[in-house]
């Protein structure tokens, strides 16, 4: 059974998630940690920065792995996944470049980038802790509904919902059509998974993930098969979750 933690609001979600990441690092200072882009984890990153600085947490041996990137973009594009992580975490915490493994969405040909990331991931020995947001269609990274479950790093054609939602990340319209992402094989091989969601807009997909069967139609539902997964969801996103499955905080 996955652990499902329901928290009153986004602030609490962010604090709890950041504390979990910090305690993981304290137990395993050389952890390989994969952190998602997107809006959901921004509060967590804010808290993480504060805790690391205030408590002088040593993160110098941590390897930070990027979950995904829009094909055609790198860190120079405001709104790209790497730009977001640079701005909200890597730069404020002075993370050394050699401790970051991230997709270059501008690599040409792009499939070489899949090979590079898969090779580097193997060298690292996989992911210890992964923090995942959840797309409006239940995607994880850019593993869209019905994506193959046997993939490592791979390129995905984005579905209509993801393309529509993408406009929120960019100041001017950006015609995205593909994403490059760690595959479900890599994600589900992580030692520990934390998946977070907040806000009413995520309540319908959260209901499908938690109450429905684990199925590739809704990639995030497959997390339920993992031995060490925790969903941390705020009350708005959890409004259709039955009381019996809840762990209230
Ligand atoms: C985006 C990203 C994911 C992210 C997810 C949820 O498209 N590819 O890395 O976790 O969708 O995004 P958000 O947190 O903005 O809702």
Strand segment count: 11
Instruction: State the order of secondary-structure elements, H for helix, E for strand.
Output: EHEHEEHEHEEHEHEHEE
Biggest sheet architecture: 8 strands, parallel
Query: What is the C-alpha radius of gyration, as a whole number of Å?
Result: 17 Å
Average pLDDT across residues? 96
Structural class: alpha/beta
Unreliable runs: none
**Cross-sheet strand order for the largest sheet:** 5-3-2-6-9-10-1-11
Count of discrete alpha- or pi-helical segments spanning 4 or more residues = 7
- Span of the ends, CA to CA: 18 Å
Instruction: Tell me roughly what share of residues is in helical segments.
Output: 25-40%
Give the CA-based shape: globular
> What hetero molecules are bound to the protein chains?
2-amino-2-deoxy-6-O-phosphono-alpha-D-glucopyranose
β-strand percent reads 15-25%
């Amino acid at each position: 059974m996955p652990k499902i933690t329901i928290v009153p609001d986004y602030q609490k979600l962010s604090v709890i998630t950041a504390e979990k990441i910090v305690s993981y690092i304290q137990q395993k200072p050389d952890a390989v940690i994969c952190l998602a882009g997107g809006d959901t984890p921004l509060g967590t990153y804010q808290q993480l920065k504060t805790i690391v600085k205030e408590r002088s947490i040593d993160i110098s041996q941590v390897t930070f792995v990027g979950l995904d990137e829009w094909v055609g973009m790198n860190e120079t594009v405001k709104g790209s996944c790497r730009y977001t992580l640079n701005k909200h975490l890597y730069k404020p915490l002075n993370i050394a470049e050699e401790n970051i493994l991230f997709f270059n969405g501008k690599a040409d040909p792009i499939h070489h980038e899949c090979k590079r990331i898969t090779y580097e991931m193997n060298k690292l020995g996989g992911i210890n802790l992964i923090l995942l947001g959840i797309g409006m269609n239940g995607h994880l990274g850019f593993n869209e509904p019905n994506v193959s479950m046997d993939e490592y790093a791979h390129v995905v054609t984005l579905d209509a919902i993801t393309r529509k939602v993408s406009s929120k990340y960019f100041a001017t319209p950006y015609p995205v059509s593909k994403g490059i992402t760690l595959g479900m094989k890599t994600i589900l091989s992580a030692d520990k998974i934390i998946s977070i969601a907040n806000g009413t807009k995520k309540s319908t997909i959260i209901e499908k993930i938690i109450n429905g069967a684990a199925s590739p139609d809704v990639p995030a539902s497959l997390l339920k098969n993992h031995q060490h997964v925790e969903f941390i969801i705020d009350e708005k996103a959890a409004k259709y979750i039955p009381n019996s499955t809840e762990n209230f905080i």
